[in-house]
Design brief:
11 helices; 317 residues; alpha/beta; 7-stranded mixed beta sheet; 16% strand; 3-stranded parallel beta sheet; single chain
């Protein structure tokens, strides 16, 4: 649409491989590039936590679409902003879905050993205590490494939970669900996080094993608002009929936040953080992007989805 303020956007892209050591090197490389106006990233919360202070020292604002660990915005940095909702909301929502919607009170947790997973685990433990939910097992795994979850699932099965909460990303979640089915645990209700909002999870698990799995997400491509329909239609046209997931929707909003900051409020590299915090308000496909003093959005909501016939669909009680 003509770029921003008459200038075309150039993307400088680096890959941190989901690894904190790589993330530190990437952040340092970008921080030394005086061409950059701001940074969009990182994907994983652990990598983001490594990068934020490096970017802060360089005077770079960081806009983020997927790092939802609650402690990110509790570090005291003023250069970080995310369009995704904090896990402070997600963990209690998972517990309430189990209790209020499913009528269950005994759960087990599968937790990746990461800032994202440990943050969700902590939030779930607090919410469970408040809602009289018993956590009968809590098993850890190494994200981006573990593929076999048979030992953890055997311990969970022996503990006798009524539901399993998976607190990791779609790759591991798909394998866990597939292995649950093979272990005779396919009838146990499963609740996954917003990070599982990807068709890959269903494909890895298999449609039959994934049938009925719940996902707490922030993005519904079937919402009737024009801004959602127009984005989804444009995405389908550009991506061979594919349906955009939440990362796509959150990512779409970021350039428009930057555009508004520059064109309407005269933001520079040095003032972008102040402008984002104090002046920018942009309604995109995922809702209103308006940042509080910590860089969190406060006006977005979470929704429940369920896998049906190999696809995520809106869940109606």
């Amino acid at each position: 649409a003509g770029g921003i303020d008459g200038k075309q956007i150039e993307l400088i892209i680096e890959d941190d491989k989901g690894n904190t050591s790589e993330a530190a090197m990437v952040a340092q490389k970008l921080a030394e590039d005086d061409r950059l106006f701001c940074v969009i990233g990182h994907v994983n919360s652990s990598c983001t936590l490594v990068g934020i202070p490096i970017y802060a020292d360089a005077g770079l604002a960081v806009l983020n679409t997927s790092s939802s660990a609650a402690n990110i915005t509790q570090q005291g940095f003023t250069n970080f902003f995310r369009t995704v909702i904090s896990d402070d909301l997600q963990a209690p929502m998972m517990v309430r879905h189990v209790t209020e919607n499913l009528g269950l009170s005994k759960v087990a947790l599968m937790v990746p050993n990461s800032d994202y997973g440990l943050g969700l685990q902590s939030g779930t433990q607090a919410s469970a205590a408040e809602n009289n939910v018993e956590i009968v097992a809590s098993e850890m795994y190494v994200p981006n490494q573990d593929k076999d979850f048979s030992v953890q699932l055997a311990k969970i099965k022996q503990a006798g939970p009524e539901a399993l909460l998976i607190m990791g990303d779609y790759n591991e979640a798909g394998l866990i669900i597939k292995q649950m089915d093979a272990a005779g645990m396919g009838d146990m209700p499963v609740v996954t996080t917003a990070s599982c909002s990807n068709q890959i999870m269903i494909d890895l698990a298999g449609a039959d094993a994934a049938e009925g799995v719940f996902m707490l997400g922030y993005w519904d491509p079937e919402r009737p608002e024009d801004i959602v329909k127009n984005f989804v239609d444009a995405w389908k046209e550009t991506h061979n009929g594919g349906i955009p997931d939440e990362r796509n929707a959150y990512g779409y909003e970021i350039p428009y936040l930057i555009k508004q900051a520059i064109e309407e409020h005269g933001a520079t590299r040095e003032t972008l953080s102040d402008v984002l915090r104090e002046k920018v308000e942009y309604t995109g496909p995922t809702g209103l992007n308006k940042f509080d003093e910590y860089g969190d959005v406060t006006e977005k909501m979470q929704m429940v989805f369920v896998v049906h016939d190999g696809k995520f669909t809106s869940w109606v009680p």
